[in-house]
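Example record for the data management plan.
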Amino acid sequence: MYENGTIFIADSDAKTRDLVSAFLTYQGHNIAAPEPNLPFFDALEKNNVDIVIADTGYLRKVAPDFGDKSQLLNPLLVLIGYGDVTASELKQHSSETVFNLPKPLNLDELESLVLRAREYQSMKIYDSSTGCVANNKFLSGTMIGKSSPMQELFEMITKVAASNATVLIQGESGTGKELAARAIHQLSDRHTKNFVPVNCAAIPDDLLESELFGHVKGSFTGAYANRIGRFEMADKGTLFLDEIGDMKANLQVKLLRVLQNREFEPVGASKSQKVDVRIIAATNKNLEELVVSRDFREDLYYRLSVIPITIPPLRERSEDIPLLIHTFLTRFNDDKRHAVKGFSRDALGILCNYVWPGNVRELENLVERLVILKGSGLIVPDDLPEKYLSGKQPSAVPVQSVTLQADNVLPKDGICLNSAVDEFENNLIMQALVRAGGNKKEAALLLNLKRTTLIEKLKKKNLVFNED
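Corresponding structural encoding:
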């Protein structure tokens, strides 16, 4: 069962109420309904309600002051049907988000809205200093994630921000290395000064020195005036050196001097300038390997990696994908003035099990593309580009033939242990379901698990058992 509260179903139509209750109970949610002799708001408080699914007309009848009183409990509201209570009315009074779904109900769309509401609730934390619920969706307004790897990353960034130590951020392309650097800057004492990014791979080698350190008039052909460099621009602030692994050897020497002496020489200048800059470097390359191959200076590597931080790839934090999709979907709906309601369970399952070589950047681009092309309604598997469908398996999670037997030989190039263990667990779960004929209770017994624990694993892993 979900541990973050109960869904309260308020509808005078018994058939609708029973249908929604049965459907969401099957999906593993805690469900509550109005009690005959218990006032509406007392029922919400008694059942620890965090989501209310309400028919608009019924809500007006039993709780005409819902918009005012709901602030005390802060439930999310999913409005269904057509009535004289509107979302805009409630938003004027309630501090929470209002979702809308017309009747007759589409259960896939209802589930999508409930999942989005759950994601929104999971992003909130209780602030003991103010006694209020605060939204913890982002770190410093930039980074998104609720998975364990991201929570550990957020904790590391928060600790690092308090110091002036040089930071080396490593991670694959598209994981958000610059966002991490900006978060460190925004959380530091330097946040009122400049954050100056430089992409070392995007600037030609013969211009990068001038870009970093500036130049004096006449120092080279085309130097018609003095120009300040990025170091001077970042004085008292933060300089972010992206793709540091592409920096050439001669500039590595000069950067090392800045790190050692906190001073630099503009191109063509006769004297040095002092500078107070915090340096954050980032790369998607393995600098240790570059040190071994002598393509990167060992002394500079150790100067840069005083505090190393690694950004996890998206495939290692797939539970963040629904949260990221929700965030991107909301943003692009607003930007494009479109009304895409969400992703169906099958579409979401496919995306949660894609390997994402382009990481978060690829996911963001995909959501923008789908919002533009779809315009409205629910995104289903047929809306996804072919490459996201090509790896689709009978199970929503591709289960490869990887086992963890004692006599297995470690591949020559190594193996991702976490992925192997996850695939091994998936295989056991699917085998238990096959042996139990799809009966989750019997499958749970075979795995020595509680039925509710098995259901939670199936939901989290997006595993779908097909009896045929």
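Summary line stored alongside the record: The two ends are 27 Å apart (CA to CA).
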